[in-house]
Amino acid sequence: MLPLALLDLTLLRLSAPTPVQAASCALKGSPWASARRMHQASLATPPPPPHLAYNYKNGPAIAEKESPISLGLAGLGSLGPRPGQIISDARSELERRVKALEEAASTEMSALDPPSYTEEELMFIYEDLLALPPVSEVENKLSPTELAQQQAEEDTSVIKAAEQRLLAPDPGEEISSPTHHRLLAHINAVVTRVEAVRKASMTSADAESPAFQNSLPVTVLSTAEFESLLRVCIRDSNISAAEMTLTLMKRSGFVIPQNIVTNTMELYARAGNVTAIEKTLATYLTDFPNEYQRYLHIKSHLVSTPADVIPASTLDVLHSYETQGHPAPIQAYTSVITSLFSCKSSLARAQAWDLFSHMRYVAHPDPDVPLYTLMIRACASPLGTRPSEPEKALDLWTEMTVDRRLPPTAGAYDAIILACARSGSTMYVNEAFRLAKQMLDAHRDARGESAFRPSRRTFCALLEGAKRVGDLARARWILAQMIAEQRTTDDTGNPEGVNEEVMMHVFHAYASYRPPLNRSAVRSATHPSSSLGQVAGQSVDAPTPTVSHEPTHPSGIEAYDRTPTFTQVPPQSGAEVIHETQILFDRILHDTGLKKFSDIPDSGATFLDEKFKDVEMTPRLLNSYLSVYYRHSSLETARTLYQTLFEEYGIPRTARTCVEALERCAIARRGHERTIAPTFADEVWTQWQSLEETGRDGERLLSGRIIERAHIAMIRILSLTNNVARAVQHLRAFAAKYPPSDLRNAPPKPALRSTRTALVGERPLVRMTSAAEVPDDHVPPLIMFDDVEILHHRLVAQNSVKEISYLSYICKAYECALRARRDAALKMKPETMRTHPPEARISSPSE
Ligand SMILES: *[C@@H]1O[C@H](CO)[C@@H](O)[C@H](O)[C@H]1NC(C)=O
Ligand SMILES: *[C@@H]1O[C@H](CO)[C@@H](O)[C@H](O)[C@H]1NC(C)=O
Ligand SMILES: *[C@@H]1O[C@H](CO)[C@@H](O)[C@H](O)[C@H]1NC(C)=O
């Protein structure tokens, strides 16, 4: 959205006197961009030293092949240019930075809805990972289902036999509880009796000695029978029964086999029962926990931590194993890093990257493919509105596939494709398509069958790229491919067809597409003598409507084109864009049965085979559909759709719905549009206000950024439509509701972000992200001068001295408060470490 606003900002930047100023304008200018979240990006602060600025956008490079110690401990300094270079490079560096930011800002326009890491996506990786047999030494973990089945049957018969022997149940007797519970109760009674007898005949000192317990085993059950019993309890997921079995076994004087202890730990880890697992470690282990047991210990902590909380206790345990010289296996690190990323906070994210580097330094220099995939995937989804980090992702990709020759999986391909596609830069989007081609072409077997098939995830990743660069031709081609695909499920039966996410991306691609300026101008280009040569020359810059980028003759396009209105050539005007999206939307309504169409003949449905039947109506789908209208139709038409669309399908409007409508009004063109804009905006505002009052947007809290976007758009609309007095009133109300003083208090810094250098510690030794680089997710809403520049212009024109000074004062106040917040965050000491060392909780079994 906001192309005009962005144009203004771009002009502003170009005319800015120095690169330094330009940099700060660009930072603030890219609307609702990272500026507000970045500590180092406060206006009029001395710019960070060039070596700090250097990697602001890309993040620190990962250069593992150099000594990780010097890299990590020397901190960021080592990542920038050498001191001698700094002065001469400073200018060009800043210019580069400004340019990068401008690019980021302009891609944001097309990135209407860059979804961050969704829970679903994360779980995909996470579950895949946990499903891997963590460590091969545990055979049970690897045995196929049949073996497990066989084992279960064996166990049952063993227990039946033991019951016959011990309890000798009357065949006619009513059996009230399952066999193994009665067996347990019986053994408990026997062992207790025997113990009582022994205790009576000994001194208490004797009874405590291990010699006593080992000397006379109470042979009620054999070890094998106990093992069967335990497996049955574990299969039941009955923690108390499993624990009771172990206790009885110990009390009977048996040495407990380690694989049985491990099996019990698996049960506890799944249940996230930290107490039980730590008790087991302390009581039943004879050696230091092996790799898999350490993994289970860490997993229990992870499972017991709520999803959106930083797993602090897990990190403690992880680091404690390191200090004891037995780091947890790599799978444990991958799980912890995954859960840090799923916290969706910038802090946790920074911690995840630090933990990755740290792991390579202290424990596992060579990540495995799932971990590489996870890190590459993370490059695709920096939180909030920052673009992805394709360079970093490609570094990791090269390291994995070239340096270490690890064969990539389909998931790894999807991750790197997404990281490149989400960058929004044409170069990397092309790289994403190249990688997709490589994925399908480079791994063919002898019969030429590709090892990989593009999944919906692959297609969605590519669509993310196409929509960001306004490449409608490719987006249409991908949709055609998906429609042509006969398979509607993947190998494991999950649906793979067109869904709501696909259609959201497709609508975004229509929204960000710029049709050639004028069709007749394009035609006239074929006449060299045309007097319209000038115009024709311009049209060369417009996207050339070619379909073929990768495969030259996609088979799918025909299927797609059988709908009469779809041609191979993308729409040539705004009206054609609207027409085409309307057809797609109607198709969705038709296939999902939401609406009957008299003009879509039933035979038409068989063409496409109801390919759109899985598209669910969601707020974000409707928002994306509406965004096409904002871009390509008149404000009136868009308004009508805004008014009717959501009610028609019973879908609630979200904060985004309101903000995008307001932002569309804020770029109303002179003339007719500006007469509609204020009334439309007022309607939207009423709906927005009720959202703002609840402070929630569906499940999530409203972010400070979206709140300020709404207000800034409203102030702009009022200023543009000569409601200057109301605009000032609005600004005052905003400042009263979100006073600058709210900004001053930065959230406390957790102990795990301590920057004190330590060689032995409960936290990463290698810190890749400095305090200044961790974005602040919790900056309250604020308004900066650029946001209200139009209002300022109008006030100057009216010569309203009092209002002008108020406006300057309030913007300055926000700016100072933001700077104070940043300074405080940088200086802030982390909270003190927890006092008890975690070692105390991992009781070493040798004690
Ligand atoms: C778990 O095992 C105990 C002891 O055998 C038994 O009393 C209890 O009912 C079991 N719980 C469940 C949920 O099966
Ligand atoms: C964890 O296991 C213990 C037995 O060791 C049990 O008493 C406790 O209730 C369990 N806690 C949870 C949260 O399940
Ligand atoms: C395209 O440009 C030509 C010449 O500039 C003009 O006559 C014609 O009306 C334009 N067509 C549209 C659809 O704007």
TrEMBL record:
Signal sequence residues: 1-22
Record field: compositional bias (Polar residues): 521-537
Keywords from the UniProt entry: Signal
Annotated region described as Disordered, given as residue ranges: 521-552
InterPro entries with a match to the protein in the record: TPR-like_helical_dom_sf (IPR011990)
GO molecular function annotations of the record: mRNA binding
Protein name: Uncharacterized protein
Organism: Sphagnurus paluster
Highest classification ranks of the organism: Eukaryota, Fungi, Dikarya, Basidiomycota, Agaricomycotina
